[in-house]
TrEMBL record:
This is Sel1 repeat family protein. PANTHER family: ERAD-ASSOCIATED E3 UBIQUITIN-PROTEIN LIGASE COMPONENT HRD3, SEL-1-LIKE PROTEIN. Residues 186-220, 237-293 are annotated as: Disordered. Residues 186-195 have a biased composition (Basic and acidic residues). The lineage of its organism: Bacteria, Bacillati, Actinomycetota, Actinomycetes, Kitasatosporales. InterPro entries: Sel1-like, Sel1_AlgK, TPR-like_helical_dom_sf, TPR_rpt. Residues 265-290 have a biased composition (Low complexity). SUPFAM superfamilies: HCP-like.
Length: 697
């Protein structure tokens, strides 16, 4: 017999023994005993026998017993007769018997009658009877009433009754209460971010150093890897919606899922049996967490935990996500595994991500495959990305298509990325367009980049704008680059500021550079700190330069006395230098030289010189010359002069003049004149003329 709802209302009574504790022979004996008593005219036995036969699915045998007991005034029999008639399709007649039982005080019948009215669209009548049931402590009545009130938009009253049902052990109510609390916490968090101007994690792609004019700023997001949306992101998106895709939808096969069609009540009892005492069938307490002094997030977690412990697979999924976000990966994995084994595809997908992050790619692929075969687009995307990393492009494409067929727009975006990597620009554009039209903001950004690369700036700008307005931080930064390229500095700065406020490192650098141009050092410092903290070597160097300009002249110290204290600007120079910034490396070398640390200075000069810095090569030459290694110094000066360093050319001219190689000296002096700067050119011209006189003598 397929009876939706909580059969515990029949089984948890003192009159019936749990099926798991009673063998078939015992059931037969009990049935025979009740049948003998019923034949002797015992009304209670008729009701009990009818309930037993109804539970077993013997409707023909149950009906005469229940009708006889009902005629004798047994309200439980009237309720169960309604259940039987409902199963046979006689809904109106069933409602008549439920009404009789409900008026007589049966909470179970009131619940069934309320369901009947709601199915027919009579919400006032449904609310009346469901409230009658709920106020008598009937857990399913409380849940059904909460569902009705939420559907009608009365969220506060709905939550109150949902909490009542959850506290009495209704797992679907516990799950839905947790979802409501989750959404409330998300709204509060969003409101707080809006008020505080908090930074959003945009996961943008950093694009390297940018010069003061912004002309070298590269398009952001052009090299993104294939996307597989993490579970946390999917659940966050779900929590931010008004109800979420599964809010209020019961799990298949759940004994307490949704609002039951009807239920069996205790025969011969003064009230319908329910979980009104707050105890589960195993005797454990159903009392949920107290909301006093507890945040919405913490309370939601507790309700997820209670529902998950009762076998609710989506609650286990959400609990796993909460634990994963908190870093409790082992317990998160256990809940994901529980949920996945119960058939939750998203949990199988999340377990795959957890295993991948732990380095177990093969096990991750097994769970992704399981989830993808169950229709999870995120898992299909993850499999596609895995095969793409292995250069198995055909298999990757197949999984991306499977993701797209499952309704995951990331599939189209990833197909675009795959085609772009293979140089199939036309196909890449088609897939990007498909994803962009479906609202995928990074696809819109990628499409704009593609159009920009083929010279269609006019076609790219609307897509950048669409992506930026949808929240793409990379697109906002790219719009800044686009406007800067047109010399529209004000418009460029607005987009840079928008991207910087959302945490984009290179955008913060551009804003800092703009503020430096305007002479606003304090605002520049603030933005440069953000960019430098985000890993920009250029920002770290520029920040150090700003701080360096404010630094008072350090006091002189005795020769050989170590200067151990490093200023903040030196720390930023060193951070930039360690990231390969050549000008910072030269500056760190100069600071080390000023401290008398020749070895450290030479190390940094050499790193800068080998990376192509002409100043580094020149300074290394000076250091070597002072240490008596003029031949090696000449080699570095030659490298610097060939790169356009005038002072290095002048030094070479002097070296060759001292050696008596006048023609070579004259050649380098002439080169120094052409390279400058002016004071170097003047000295080099005098030296050149003197060497010319010597050669002419």
């Amino acid at each position: 017999m397929d009876v939706m709802g909580d059969k515990a209302t029949l089984l948890e009574t003192g009159r019936f023994v749990q099926p798991s504790d009673r063998d078939e022979a015992g059931e037969a004996v009990e049935e025979a005993r009740q049948r003998l008593a019923a034949e002797a005219g015992d009304v209670e036995a008729m009701s009990v026998l009818g309930a037993m036969l109804l539970r077993r699915g013997d409707l023909d045998g149950a009906e005469p017993q229940l009708r006889a007991a009902t005629a004798a005034g047994d309200r439980a029999a009237a309720n169960n007769l309604g259940v039987l008639l409902h199963q046979r399709g006689y809904a109106d007649e069933a409602a008549g018997w439920w009404r009789i039982a409900a008026v007589a005080g049966s909470a179970a019948a009131a619940h069934a009658l309320g369901r009947h009215h709601r199915e027919r669209g009579d919400e006032p009548a449904a609310e009346y009877w469901l409230r009658q049931s709920a106020e008598q402590g009937h857990v399913l009545g409380a849940y059904a009433l909460a569902d009705l009130l939420e559907h009608r938009g009365d969220a506060a009253a709905g939550e109150e009754w949902m909490r009542a049902a959850a506290e009495r052990g209704h797992r679907e109510a516990a799950y839905r209460l947790a979802r409501a609390l989750d959404r409330r916490a998300a709204r509060e968090s969003a409101g707080k971010r809006g008020t505080d101007g908090g930074v959003v994690d945009a996961r943008s792609v950093d694009t390297g150093p940018v010069d003061a004019g912004g002309s070298d700023a590269r398009v952001s997001g052009a090299g993104m890897s294939h996307a597989a949306v993490s579970l946390a992101g999917a659940l966050d998106a779900e929590a931010s919606s008004s109800g979420g895709p599964d809010a209020g939808l019961p799990e298949a096969g759940s004994s307490d899922a949704g609002v039951p069609e009807a239920e069996l009540s205790e025969a011969g009892s003064s009230k319908a049996a329910s979980s009104s005492d707050g105890a589960s069938s195993d005797g454990s307490s159903n009392a949920g967490p107290s909301k006093a002094g507890m945040s919405a997030c913490a309370e939601a977690e507790q309700w997820y935990r209670q529902a998950a412990a009762r076998g609710h697979r989506r609650a286990a999924l959400h609990l796993g996500a909460i634990l994963e976000k908190r870093g409790e990966l082992k317990e998160a994995g256990r809940w994901y595994l529980t949920s996945a084994k119960d058939g939750e595809a998203r949990a199988a997908c999340a377990l795959g991500f957890l295993l991948r992050d732990a380095g177990d790619t093969e096990s991750a692929a097994v769970w992704w495959l399981r989830a993808a075969q169950d229709g999870d687009g995120n898992a299909a995307n993850a499999l596609g990305a895995l095969h793409a990393e292995r250069a198995e492009t055909q298999t990757a494409e197949r999984w991306y298509r499977a993701a797209m067929d499952a309704g995951d727009v990331n599939g189209a975006y990833n197909l675009g990325l795959l085609c772009a990597e293979q140089g199939r620009t036309g196909q890449a554009e088609q897939w990007y367009r498909r994803a962009a039209y479906a609202g995928h903001r990074e696809a819109a950004n990628a499409l704009a980049i593609l159009l920009l690369q083929v010279g269609d700036a006019a076609g790219a700008e609307p897509w950048f704008s669409k992506a930026a307005e949808s929240g793409s931080v990379d697109a906002a930064f790219n719009l800044g680059i686009l406007h800067a390229g047109r010399r529209e500095e004000d418009a460029a700065l607005r987009w840079y500021e928008r991207a910087a406020a959302a945490g984009h490192t290179e955008a913060a650098l551009q804003v800092g550079i703009a503020r430096l141009r305007d002479g606003d050092d304090r605002a520049a410092e603030r933005h440069l700190r953000c960019a430098a903290g985000g890993g920009s070597a250029e920002a770290a160097y520029r920040l150090a330069a700003v701080l360096d300009a404010r630094r008072p002249t350090p006091p002189a110290h005795e020769l050989g006395e170590p200067a151990t204290e490093r200023s903040e600007c030196e720390e930023w120079y060193e951070r930039a230098a360690s990231q390969g910034h050549r000008r910072a490396q030269v500056r760190v070398g100069m600071l080390a030289s000023a401290r008398g640390d020749v070895v450290e200075a030479a190390r940094w000069y050499r790193e800068a010189a080998e990376a192509g810095s002409r100043n580094g090569a020149f300074n290394l030459g000076l250091l070597l010359a002072r240490e008596g290694s003029e031949p090696e110094a000449a080699l570095w000066w030659t490298r610097a002069a060939n790169a356009g360093h005038g002072r290095a050319a002048l030094r070479l001219a002097l070296v060759y003049a001292r050696r008596g190689e006048l023609a070579e000296g004259q050649r380098w002096a002439d080169r120094a004149v052409s390279l400058g700067p002016s004071e170097v050119a003047e000295r080099a011209a005098r030296l050149r003329d003197a060497l010319q006189e010597e050669l002419s003598a």
